[in-house]
Amino acid sequence: MTLFLSPFPPTQYARHQHRVLPKPQASSFSSSFQPIQSHPKSTGVVVIGAGLAGLAAATHLNSRNIPFLLLEASDAVGGRVRTDVVDGFLLDRGFQIFITAYPEAQKLLHYPSLNLRNFYSGARVYYNSQFHTVSNPLRHFWDSVQSLANPIGSVFDKLLIAPTTLRVLSKSDDEILTSEELPTVDLLRRFGFSDSIIRRFFRPFFGGVFFDRELETTSRLFHFIFKCLALGDNALPANGIGAIPEQLAAKLPPNSILLNSKVVSVDLEEPGSGSGSPSVRLENGEVIRSDLGIIVAVEEPQAAKLLPGRSELVKQKPARSTVCLYFSMDRSQVPIRDPVLFLNGSGMGIVNNMFFATNVAPSYGPAEKALVSVSLIGMFEGMSDDDLRAEVVRELSGWFGDSMVGSWRHLRTYRIGFAQPNQRPPTDLMKNPRIGSGVYACGDHLTSATFDGALLSGRRAAEALLRDKALVRG
Ligand SMILES: Cc1cc2nc3c(=O)[nH]c(=O)nc-3n(C[C@H](O)[C@H](O)[C@H](O)COP(=O)(O)OP(=O)(O)OC[C@H]3O[C@@H](n4cnc5c(N)ncnc54)[C@H](O)[C@@H]3O)c2cc1C
């Protein structure tokens, strides 16, 4: 049983200095929570970063009635999980899919309010100038029987999916995340998958999930995602992927989130020095002291800056990057109605995957218009946005025909340099959140580079802090 032992009466945190903050920019999707208008100079716990990890940490603290302040550098919550509204279209900042079987998400999120819209469980692979369906046999059995003979791998490859699924389903998540690891591509070969299914299906599909077409990413992450895909649906919230962090933020107390507040330094409590509690300094010079501790919930490169000398937080591996281009077209011209993901299995070109987002969630575009989302892996620094757009249009004209693709109107291009931390072996997906006296870390770089990993890491950091301060017994 968990017991709350807080020594702090709520009124201790009631004396604040007031400051009015700018409103979030109108391009962000409308938010149902109210950002803070004033803030205290000290609080129970300071959480830095309002991505999924910071929001999960704050949610956990809130559920234990621990006062906290969530400081976010940007103009809205969500971190890497945000949606912009452009000309009536919902543009997620990069192609993102929510898997309903994510275990920590199931505990934290209220799915019905997200109004989740499902993808077809499988994909359509462009190979040899044709489209071929690959289906999840647990969801679309007859489709998968019909696809046995297609050229996206051998019949043996397709029959191997069932034992691979059973193998991951028999393991707990903790077992998966701590199991012996090797690069995903080596694991697939060890299982017996042929080079053709690896090239035509696994590279574009899991390469798109990990932003890593080489499939160097740890087999632990492959197993975890594979298990979640087997157990759940791939979905998008009707109001955009940003609805996920917004739902978490809306449940936090008023005046607990401070936007546009970049932390520039974290001052650690020196053990035994009697120097008091750790504190943070904001870009504008303000200092906020924490009575209980600080949770650093920023992305890996920022964590390295805020916590210099903590080498365990920084991986010397290049980050995973992506470019996502959005186009609009007439809804009546969309060549299919299925909510399916298209993969480039041809081994040529720069497009990795694309889909008609309004087929999955019609709310992603105005009534008569369709939204097209195209994803590339890597940053393509040597190419201008115009060149990238022209190349994508040229390539997809080969898939769908000049007349259709020629009518697309470009909406926006997102280049995301730090999409995910690099998780090729060796990895530690169960990193200790304790950083120093009174300072804790969370974020996808401490666990798996997924929504779920970020949420889980947030809870773990909050639990570690509360245990260390003897505020809970578990
Ligand atoms: C394009 C893209 C596609 C993805 N697709 C998927 C997917 O399909 N499925 C999936 O499970 N995962 C996906 N991911 C990964 C997933 O989004 C991340 O793993 C997760 O959101 C990380 O959350 P986080 O809280 O750890 O970090 P972040 O979201 O990066 O949050 C960190 C926050 O800290 C703030 N911050 C940084 N520095 C400071 C500072 N000094 N002071 C105050 N605040 C600061 C940042 O502004 C940010 O809001 C994708 C990621 C991207 C970018």
TrEMBL record:
Alphabetical list of InterPro entries matching this protein: Amino_oxidase, FAD/NAD-bd_sf
One example GO MF annotation: oxidoreductase activity
Amine oxidase domain: residues covered: 52-466
Gene3D superfamilies in the cross-refs: FAD/NAD(P)-binding domain
Segments forming a coiled coil: none
Pfam families the record matches: Amino_oxidase (PF01593)
PANTHER family named among the record's database cross-references: AMINE OXIDASE
Protein name per UniProt: Amine oxidase domain-containing protein
